[in-house]
Specification:
The complex is a heterodimer. Chain A is α/β, with parallel strands linked by helices. Chain A has helices at residues 2-25, 40-55, 69-82, 98-106, 131-150, 167-180, 198-211, 223-235, 252-260, 271-287; strands at 29-34, 59-64, 86-89, 111-114, 125-128, 155-161, 186-192, 217-220, 244-249, 265-268, 294-298, 301-308, 311-315, 319-321. Chain B is mainly α. Classes of the chains: A alpha/beta, B mainly alpha. The A-B interface holds A 36-40, 42-43, 161, 164-165, 170, 173, 189-192, 194-200, 202-204, 206-208, 210-212, 224, 227-228, 230-231, 234-235, 251-253, 256, 260 and B 33-35, 37, 39-40, 43, 46-47, 50, 89-90, 149, 153-156, 158-159, 165, 168-169, 171, 184, 249, 252-255, 257-263, 300-301, 304-305, 307, 310-311, 313-314.
Chain lengths: 346, 339
């Protein structure tokens, strides 16, 4: 009995000894307030941030707000009390989190805005592709597709938004429509798929195909909405290529639809680069050191840091994915994280 | 009031939701561009399939004097189960059975089993342990959705096995030159469910006993009817039917996402109430519930076609549903006066 007890104690001591160096190597805990885990982009962002931050020595803890603003506000308050090395925030509501950000900054905790740009108050760092810019890229692709089909930029576009209460989708809509406004021969029908729910997108597509059988292009604000749209097209007897499809965010489902011939273009948000940028600058963020504006190479992508009223902002370009480049491993939808280790920016 | 007038009034009140549906379809056909066409009416019936089936289970439990808030999450879990097993892309493992048609009964059985199991747990906690149905099923609404999220990791499954997807593509109806009114098999399945369960509720002892339990549980118990057993069966049925709704949902979207079915619970409750089922229990008929489902789908379709700003649609939707519910309340008041 005594021998057994001694053996157990030795094993525990060995385990503790192994742990201690690991703990000593961590530069601190970073909390990531993610808006939802019901979206592939957000789920992907958790694993990407976890991987890249670990490479530069930080431990990541994720809290899911389940798309509830009040939940995220409470999480922000709780995390501030824990005094982490930094907080990464992808806000459910861009403006409602402003007091929380200000409290954290006042408490000396750096706040990093991830993917959702908050311009109403300064943060330590912002890493975005730019949702309005995603809309712009989508508009450029729509113009190309309509020209290829109709000879010029004219025709009918069905734009399926996400939940209309989500500023993310409203920004994409804004970017898309402001670029398309230069082409008066394009009619855009915009409808929301409430709560980003796929079957709502399918219903919208089914109804609009009957009401407007001359729709040239369907643009969905998320790839998973396109899946339900394709299902509706199939049920209506359509084949791949009968109606042009485009979606944004770059999720694996979108790339699969391109391979199958249904989707023409997927506008990707550079998830890996956005997450890698946060990791690369994390030492400077935690140390509250100056982040100089300029161009930076972030895992092979050119990121431009500018100093804005809301603090240093890195913008990483989104990409248009089509059949010619769909298998490129740099697109997060192929689920092949970069093999190069992220290094802290000196 | 003459007996004839009284009979006519009672007929109208008994079928008010169908008259409401007719009125709504007429108004929308007149004032919403592109609404009045066979394809749109076929879409309304198709869009009603998932919500309709879900509402059957919910109605059973409400008529029995309880409630089940978990139906939406159960449908989502059922859809995700089918998605993971029988989808070949995303997180789907692409399970292939020989012969291929075997995927249909196997997937259907799994959906019913998943839903029934959760229904059994709900029923056991509510009936045996006497825990409040609202609390138990609210907890189920949360943890079952949590399982969907945990299983999927937030990712999607897509590209459902063709044998199962066939039900969403094959259409039945009238298809002649110049007139096409065909509806997918999934919608016909939903109609069949309504017919079967309407028969059960009106023509079988089980159905009649459920209504009695909803009206007065104690009196029903004292009459020698096995109340506990019947209630547990009702919850199992509600869960299994929600599982079937999930199967239909997976077919409709050719896969499953972690947030699939979000928002259906509210619509199911609205359809049940508009259909004339009393939230107090003991009152209601399933044909009315189907009319309520069609009414909600008709409103949704009108909103899809109206071209309203995206940020206004939820307000309009809610107000239209409120109008339908108020009309039903008016019906109850009128009925009491007649009595």
């Amino acid at each position: 009995m005594r021998k057994l007890l001694l053996s157990i104690l030795c094993v525990m001591a060995a385990a503790l000894a192994l742990l201690t160096p690991a703990l000593a190597q961590s530069k601190g805990k970073v909390y990531y307030l993610v808006p939802t885990l019901l979206d592939e982009f957000q789920t992907g962002s958790v694993s990407a941030l976890e991987t890249f931050l670990k490479q530069v020595g930080y431990e990541l803890v994720t809290l899911n707000a389940d798309n509830k603003t009040d939940t995220q506000q409470s999480q922000m308050n709780d995390v501030i009390a824990l005094k982490p090395a930094a907080i990464i925030l992808a806000a459910v509501d861009f403006n409602a989190l402003k007091p929380g950000i200000e409290s954290a900054m006042a408490a000396g905790i750096p706040v990093v805005e991830f993917d959702r740009q908050i311009t109403s108050t300064p943060s330590s760092f912002t890493s975005v592709a730019g949702t309005i810019e995603i809309g712009h890229i989508a508009a450029e692709q729509a113009q190309k597709l309509l020209t290829a089909k109709n000879g010029s930029v004219k025709g009918k576009v069905l734009q399926i938004l996400g939940d209309p209460g989500d500023p993310y989708t409203l920004d994409i809509q804004k970017g898309f429509e402001e670029k398309m406004a230069a082409f008066p021969d394009v009619k855009i029908i915009s409808l929301p798929a409430m709560q980003w729910e796929a079957s709502n997108a399918g219903t919208i597509a089914a109804d609009q195909l009957v009401a407007n059988p001359d729709i040239d292009l369907i643009f969905s604000h998320a790839a998973h909405l396109s899946v339900a749209v394709v299902a509706a097209l199939e049920a209506a007897g359509k084949k791949p290529g009968d109606i042009m499809l485009m979606s944004s965010n770059g999720a694996p489902v979108g790339l699969d639809l391109i391979r199958k011939g249904w989707l023409n273009v997927e506008v990707e948000q550079p998830l890996y680069a956005q997450a890698a940028a946060v990791a690369a600058f994390m030492d400077k963020i935690v140390a509250k050191a100056e982040i100089k504006p300029g161009e930076y190479d972030i895992i092979g992508l050119k990121g431009v840091v500018t100093t804005e009223t809301w603090g240093p902002n890195i913008k990483l370009p989104g990409a248009a994915i089509d059949k010619s480049n769909v298998d490129d491993p740099k697109f997060w939808g192929n689920l092949k994280p970069p093999t190069d280790t992220v290094k802290s920016i000196e | 009031m003459s007996p004839q007038t009284r009979r006519l009034l009672e007929f109208v009140l008994d079928n008010l939701v169908w008259f409401m549906l007719l009125a709504v379809l007429t108004v929308f056909s007149l004032f919403v561009p592109n609404y009045f066409q066979p394809g749109i009416f076929a879409n309304i019936i198709e869009a009603s399939s998932v919500l309709g089936v879900m509402s059957i289970g919910l109605a059973l439990v409400i008529i029995a004097g309880h409630m089940d808030l978990s139906v939406e999450s159960v449908a989502a879990l059922s859809a995700m189960t089918i998605g993971v097993l029988f989808c070949s892309a995303g997180i789907g493992i692409g399970l292939k059975l020989q012969p291929e048609w075997l995927a249909v009964p196997v997937s259907l059985f799994l959906s019913l089993a998943v839903g029934g199991a959760i229904g059994l747990l709900n029923g056991f906690l509510i009936v045996r342990w006497r825990v409040n149905a609202f609390i138990v099923t609210l907890a189920s609404y949360i943890w079952v959705r949590g399982i969907v999220l945990a299983v999927s990791g937030g990712r999607s499954a897509q590209d459902l096995a063709p044998a199962i997807r066939w039900f969403g593509i094959q259409r039945l109806g009238i298809d002649v030159p110049g007139f096409n009114f065909t509806v997918p098999l999934t919608a016909w399945l939903a109609v069949l469910c309504f017919v079967v369960f309407s028969f059960i509720m009106t023509k079988t002892p089980f159905g009649r006993h459920l209504i009695m339990i909803g009206g007065n549980e104690v009196a029903t118990f004292r009459a020698g009817i096995k109340v506990n057993k019947l209630l547990i069966i009702a919850f199992v049925l509600a869960g299994a039917i929600a599982g079937l709704a999930g199967w239909l949902l997976a077919i409709r979207t050719s896969g499953a996402t972690a947030n699939l079915g979000t928002g259906l619970l509210f619509n199911a409750f609205a359809a049940v109430v508009i259909g004339g089922v009393s939230l107090k229990g003991g009152v209601g008929a399933l044909p009315g519930v189907y009319a309520g489902v069609l009414l909600l789908s008709a409103i949704n379709t009108a909103i899809n076609l109206m071209g309203l700003p995206a940020t206004s649609t939820q307000v309009i939707h809610g107000l239209l549903v409120l109008a339908a519910v108020l009309l039903d309340t008016f019906k109850q008041t009128l009925r009491q006066r007649l009595a």
